[in-house]
Design a protein that fits this description.
This protein is of the alpha+beta class. Among the domains are: about 325 residues, Porin (Beta Barrel); about 110 residues, Serine Threonine Protein Phosphatase 5, Tetratricopeptide repeat (Alpha Horseshoe). It is built from 22 helices and 18 strands. A hairpin with a 7-residue loop joins β17 and β18. It is elongated and about 130 Å long.
Length: about 725
């Protein structure tokens, strides 16, 4: 065995001395050892080693079976891997392994070999002996299986796995043999997406005898957690020896700066200084193989290097297993949408699947089912669409253009792209060719500006004010479908007002009337009539208010001077507040001055006050946009919406507020739609309808919310 000498020249004590040298040598990589079986601690996978010898690396290669047998369940095709670890004095650790996925789980096998290199041994006389023929070898068998639920939708709980190890060591002419088991489980946490945890009991098994001493295997209990981000993986581990009080802790990460590159780093803290410290590694994914490398600095010995190669051995043998991981994941999402009756979303996912896997039979079958469901919905809507189309044609013949367009629009809401409805709208455009003159363009621009103001008021449930503005919009733009829908909605809400609510609206009108604000009071009395068309008091006040508008008595000159001084004093205070940056107080004072001007017939001051108020509103509106942007970035969508709405209420021309409110409204609309679908799936129809109504208020263009809301009416 040793060059230049015979084994019978060695005594048991000298062999023990040699063993001590070997134990120290191996410890440079794996920790404090007291027998040759300690080489079982060596992790052959550079990804795991570089992240602190974690059990949570989950490499898609056979090397992963050593660090965590349950992690092998993620391998989806036959794989072969080889790794080599270079240590000081020529010591080398090799690992060769393969794994094969099957329908019943993944089966793997591997062999780990420790060669002690050129470490010198010494006999009792102090003469050196070569012990290069000494070695330690372990044969591994691995089995792992995922734990999933497939009905009604795919839910991945994790995986379990175990290793069986046969250990064969040889030091000089003394052989050692033993058996060991590893058992582990991986759990995917349902309450935190992309978070998983694992436990591993490693090296359970028989003791090993060397010369006259018996050694226990280095059994340990390991715990680990992992969190996956699109561009990074974070891990943390704890390891506790079963036969001693020694513990170690580690943490690490992997980042993916490019699709085919991994950068890995970690720290391990152990009672053994040889195994503590920083380590790092990198990996490259090529088309037909993968290469990984790790470097382990040591405080007391030379740096260790580890390199590995992984090679796939052909295509995925079990297509069904692949479906369950990638295609299957999206297919189950499509089924979930289907069972929630969200057929449009389900069809979109299925079509995306078939674009990649055109032969996937289950997706084809579900696409046919979705088509049948949508056809049934279309058939149920066809009579309604035909009735609306006939009504629209009749209105067009009678030259009732707004009603004709309204009905054609309704047909297009049911069946987008309906040719007869589009033809009808084209005929309306021909009839109304003069509407595209310069005045028409100006009216539509003003209607668009007013629409934002009305929408803000509507969302605050200030129905009377928003209703009046929507009516003004329809005077400017009779074909504004959105304004017409809001008027219809508000009219419907007026009809459902309680007597107490109607009475409050009436009182508001009376208060304005008594202050000679006749035009404003008429809005409230009209709202009362919308709720109760036979309300004689409201009719009487409308007549009196209309008469009052035309017969306001001229103010006495002395009184006029008095109120003019009062107005100018308030205006001066407002200007001072503005210069001090107290914009809200300034706006309140300008509004007070405007009230004096309107009530006391000081119209000459109105244009100037309007300009001053517009300037202050613009500043306040910009400040609210900044606050809204901050809320949006913090995902406080409702706060952001309120700030944008107030910004638009102050300045309807604020393009930043318009864009921000549209952005928030669409996102909030989607949020309430999702909540509505959740409630609908639980048969909570009333709650679902409320969510869909909220979704539509925020974004009337949400077709899915509109469809579900109409369905639950």
């Amino acid at each position: 065995m040793y060059s230049g000498g015979q084994m019978r020249g060695l005594s048991k004590s000298s062999i023990s001395a040699v063993a001590a040298v070997l134990f120290f040598s191996v410890s440079c990589l794996a920790g404090t050892f007291n027998n040759t079986s300690e080489f079982l601690r060596i992790v052959p996978d550079p990804q795991s080693v570089a992240m602190g010898e974690t059990i949570m690396a989950f490499p898609e290669s056979p090397m992963g079976m050593v660090s965590n047998p349950a992690g092998m369940s993620i391998v989806r095709r036959p794989e072969f891997s080889f790794s080599e670890t270079l240590m000081w004095e020529g010591m080398r650790h090799y690992f060769l392994g393969a794994v094969m996925p099957t329908q019943m789980g993944n089966i793997g096998a591997g062999v780990a070999h420790m060669a002690y290199g050129d470490i010198p041994g010494f006999d009792n006389n102090g003469d050196p002996y070569d012990i290069s023929s000494s070695y330690a070898t372990t044969f591994l068998l691995n089995y792992s299986i995922p734990v999933n639920r497939h009905v009604p939708v795919l839910v991945e709980y994790g995986s379990v796995g175990f290793n069986f190890k046969f250990i064969q060591d040889k030091l000089s002419e003394y052989p050692l043999e033993g058996m060991a088991f590893d058992l582990s489980a991986v759990v995917k946490m349902p309450f935190v997406k992309s978070f998983s945890a694992s436990f591993l009991y490693k090296n359970m098994g028989s003791s090993m005898k060397f010369v006259n001493d018996t050694y226990q295997l280095p059994a340990s209990l390991n715990y680990g957690v992992r969190y996956d981000l699109p561009w990074m993986t974070l891990v943390a581990d704890s390891s506790n020896d079963a036969e001693s009080s020694l513990s170690s802790y580690s943490a690490g990460f992997t980042v993916y700066p490019a699709h085919s590159i991994r950068l890995m780093s970690g720290w391990r803290e152990s009672a053994d200084s040889l195994n503590s410290g920083f380590r790092f590694g990198l990996g490259f994914d090529f088309e037909s193989f993968t290469v990984n490398y790790a470097m382990l600095p040591s405080n007391d010995a030379a740096i260790s290097h580890q390199a590995a190669i992984e090679i796939p051995l052909g295509p995925i043998p079990q297509q069904e297993a692949a479906y369950k991981r990638s295609l299957g994941y999206y297919f189950e999402k499509a089924k979930e949408k289907y069972y929630r009756r969200d057929y449009i979303a389900a069809r979109q996912i299925i079509e995306d699947i078939l674009a990649v896997y055109p032969g996937h039979r289950p997706s084809i079958e579900y696409l046919e089912k979705i088509g049948e469901k949508l056809d049934a919905i279309d058939r149920s809507k066809t009579p309604e669409a035909n009735a609306l189309l006939a009504r629209a044609d009749a209105e067009l013949e009678a030259e009732n253009i707004p009603e004709a367009k309204k009905n054609y629009d309704k047909v297009l809401e049911i069946f987008p792209g309906h040719p007869a409805a589009l033809d009808g709208l084209a005929r309306i455009d021909q009839i109304m060719g003069g509407y595209n003159d310069e005045k028409g363009f100006k009216d539509r621009a003003e209607a668009k500006r007013l629409f934002q103001k009305a929408l803000v008021l509507y969302r605050k449930d200030r129905l009377v004010e928003s209703w009046d503005i929507f009516l003004n919009i329809l005077e400017l733009d009779p074909f504004n479908a959105e304004a017409r829908e809001y008027v219809k909605d508000i009219n419907n809400r007026f009809t459902t007002l309680t007597k107490w609510e109607t009475k409050n609206i009436f009182k508001s009108g009376v208060r304005l009337y008594k202050k000679n604000r006749f035009a404003e009071s008429i809005k409230y009395f009209n709202a009362v009539l919308a709720a109760d068309s036979k309300n004689a008091q409201a009719q009487e006040y409308i007549a009196r208010a209309q008469e009052g508008v035309s017969q306001l008595p001229p103010m006495d000159p002395a009184e006029s001077v008095k109120y003019e001084k009062e107005l100018l004093a308030v205006k001066e205070k407002a200007n001072k507040k503005y210069l001090k940056g107290d914009y809200q107080a300034s706006l309140n004072l300008f509004a007070e001055a405007m009230k004096i001007a309107e009530e006391r017939q000081l119209e000459v001051y109105v244009p100037g006050l309007n300009n001053s108020m517009a300037k202050v509103r613009s500043v306040l509106s910009d400040q609210l946009c900044v606050a809204a942007d901050t809320s949006f970035q913090k995902d406080k969508l409702e706060d952001a919406a309120k700030s944008y709405e107030k910004a638009l209420e102050l300045n309807p021309d604020n393009s930043t507020a318009k864009a921000g409110l549209d952005k928030v409204s669409i996102k909030l609309s989607k949020y309430y739609y999702d909540r509505g679908m959740e409630a609908y799936s639980k048969s909570e129809s009333d709650k679902a309808r409320e969510y869909f109504e909220k979704s539509l208020k925020l974004y009337p263009g949400n077709e899915e919310s509109k469809r579900m809301y109409e369905k639950l009416k």
